[in-house]
TrEMBL record:
Name this polypeptide is given: DUF2626 domain-containing protein
Keywords annotated in UniProt: Membrane, Transmembrane, Transmembrane helix
InterPro entries on file: DUF2626 (IPR020254)
A Pfam family hit: DUF2626
Domain of life: Bacteria
Species for this entry: Lederbergia citrea
Segments traversing the membrane: 7-23, 29-46, 53-74
């Protein structure tokens, strides 16, 4: 299970690099933070159940934040 979190860290790191190269600095920092979180978590040697609880909590926070952003902060019409 710890390798899954290292894989997540790798892919969020790739996304952070791509966002940075695309000029999206705030998003790159967000993904860089996620990369650090996933890689740090992968070396804690938690039980499989605890890894699942952490991932469930991560998804809950993500969905709440994404829903808030799309309902209240995103400009209507996709920013056109």
């Amino acid at each position: 299970m710890d390798r899954m979190y290292r894989g997540l860290g790798f892919w969020t790191g790739i996304f952070a690099i791509m966002f940075y190269l695309g000029g999206m600095d705030k998003t790159a920092l967000l993904f860089l933070g996620q990369t650090g979180f996933f890689v740090l978590l992968s070396y804690l040697r938690l039980s499989e159940r605890m890894y699942m609880y952490v991932f469930g909590a991560y998804l809950s926070v993500f969905f709440a934040g994404f829903t808030y952003y799309t309902l209240f902060l995103m400009p209507p019409g996709g920013g056109l």
